[in-house]
Design goal:
This protein is an alpha+beta fold and about 525 residues long. Among the domains are: about 120 residues, Alpha-Beta Complex (Dipeptide-binding Protein, domain 1), CATH 3.90.76.10; about 210 residues, Dipeptide-binding Protein, domain 3. About 25% of the residues lie in helices and about 25% in strands. The chain contains 13 helices and 20 strands. Helix 6 packs antiparallel against helix 8 and helix 12 runs antiparallel to helix 13. Keywords: Signal, Transport.
Length: about 525
Amino acid sequence: MSTLSTAAIRRGLAVIASVSALALVATGCASSNRTETPEGDSARGGTLRIALDKAPASLDPADMEQSTSPFAQPAYDALIGVDTDGTLVPALATEWAFTDDENKVFEITVRDDVTFSDGAALDADALIANLEHLDGGKSNVASLVNGGEYEKVDDDTVRITWETPHPLAPQAFTQRWVAGMVVSPDAIADDTVSLATQTVGAGPYVLDDDRTVAGSAYVYTARDDYWNPDTQYWDEISITVIENPEQRLNALRTGEVDYIAGDLASADAAAAADLQVLYAPTIVYGLSLLDRAGDLDSPLADLKVRQAINYALDRESIATALLGEYGFATEQTIVPSEPGYVKALDGRYDYDPETATQLLTEAGYPDGFSLPVVASTSATAATLSQVIVEQLAQVGITVELDSRPSADYFEGMTSGTFPAAVIGYGSQPLPMEYDGLFGPSAIFNPLGSQSDTIDDLMAQALVAPEAEATALYEQIVTELVEQAWFAPAVFAPVFYFASDDLAPIEVTEARPQAPITSIAPAE
């Protein structure tokens, strides 16, 4: 039995463990319950059993949050694939490219041998129907590609023209994002409401309505007419919703399920049980210093104060105490594997309470000040909040902590009434962070902080070739760190656990979860 490597994560480097796993079937051994594919070229496992922490509000990709995309993956293939090294590869689409020099005109060609589970054909008209359907949806990632004009170039090619640059369109159309998942055009035309509870995709499986209980259990069965049968590794995929992480872990230990969403609190127990632990530190936790322009008359309008807060945080100790081997300290909001991360900024604010005190004195606060901070009561955020309170108190800053449950916290954080907030934010490509975290219209920037330097650099990056854009992203990240818009502390991990009977799964430093359909039985 293979075991997980537990080498410590160094600063700025997320060590991703490869994992082996194999689903149990009714007989208790997938290898003894193989079935031949229709072509007879390879054998499939029986049932892959998965337990996740929350159900989707809808199964329609146009209305689906990214966090629940695993429920769509069995039924909906994406237009573009992405390898574990980040390389984009053909999937439902065979070719794609921007045809202008501003990332506003994008052409994509789809395969001509694909049908959906209802028999409809994939072609240019089908893709246009999907893009228009996405325009009217509620997906939290639709903005990556929607709002364009869609033109049929030929039977299999669509030209998309946007008024503004969309440089992340190729990445958005991959299996990482629901924007790339394609629905049958006939289903869109007939009844979009039913797509919330049924699947009509071009993927390897279709939802079994009779055996599915919305919000609780979802069963997907293999299609006989799937265009790429060699990648149908299972007869069935079953996803059960188990909110309690301990219950999920127990189900994995006893063989009731084979692959689960894990968490930090149970990671050591999973490793001790010889289960495979798959993780990547991708969520940045720390302080967002929201009142950068002094709209609330807080001391955060002074750069020296914001820098003092950064110097007051002992990031290495926080990472060790809070995350152990599973995370690392950071001064940046973007993970090392994403374009824009600047290695030279590591250690920019090494723990130095004397410098913090000196900067506060220079800013006119020799005796410190009080700072209202809103925080979540979720486990990691709550623990970090207490550490921040203690460490800032050592340099004279009294944190007035307002801890709230999730929904109340988000309302408070976005209300524009708090000068600072403890945040946990999943690292994204920098243009997405600009839209969601630090741009003037970002929801995590409720006071609308604005920097001409950052805005100008982002405007240049959005229309630049990839290599030039990366250099511009690095300048943006440097500006954010030097101007101390945030006081990041650590990157915390997202976890998945599996039995040690699955074929080895590769993941990336930025995303620990493999697509559901890529999980295969062991040989």
